[in-house]
Amino acid sequence: MNWNDLDSGDGYVREAALRDLSGPAPNGFAMALALRRLNDWVPQVRSAARETLPALAEASDPEQVVDALCGAPWPIEP
């Protein structure tokens, strides 16, 4: 799994990608893809995003995280 799998049309692939990712986001776009999964239509993907994003954001460049947050589709549904 890699960061590009976050944009897959298959919810199982998106969920697996989120659970498999570790370390910093390679760029702000990748972080934005991960943040977008908080609004995914598949509940398991949203759950995986809530569990994984804090560690990904902490490991990533703060400027990339802020850029991704500023471009995120708000509000994010619980």
Describe the structure.
There is one protein chain. With 78 residues, this protein is mainly alpha-helical. The chain has four helices and no strands. It has helices spanning 11-20, 28-36, 43-59, 62-71. Helix 1 runs parallel beside helix 3 (43-59) and helix 2 packs across helix 4 (62-71). The protein starts with 10 loop residues before the first helix and ends in a 7-residue tail after the last helix. The mean pLDDT is 89.
Please outline the helices and strands.
Blueprint: H1 11-20, H2 28-36, H3 43-59, H4 62-71
Helix pairs in contact: 1-3, 2-4
Supply the number of helical segments: 4
Rg calculated over all Cα atoms: 11 Å
Summed over residues and divided by their number, the pLDDT gives a mean of: 89
The end-to-end distance, rounded to whole angstroms, is 26 Å
How is the biggest beta sheet arranged? none
Instruction: Please provide the ordered H/E string of secondary-structure elements.
Output: HHHH
What is the oligomer described by this structure?
A: single chain
Q: How much β-strand is present in the residues?
A: under 5%
Which ranges are low-confidence, i.e. pLDDT below 50, for 5 or more consecutive residues?
none
Summed up, what is this model?
Helices cover 59% and strands 0% of the residues. It has 4 helices and no strands.
List keywords for this structure.
about 80 residues; mainly alpha; about 60% helix; about 0% strand
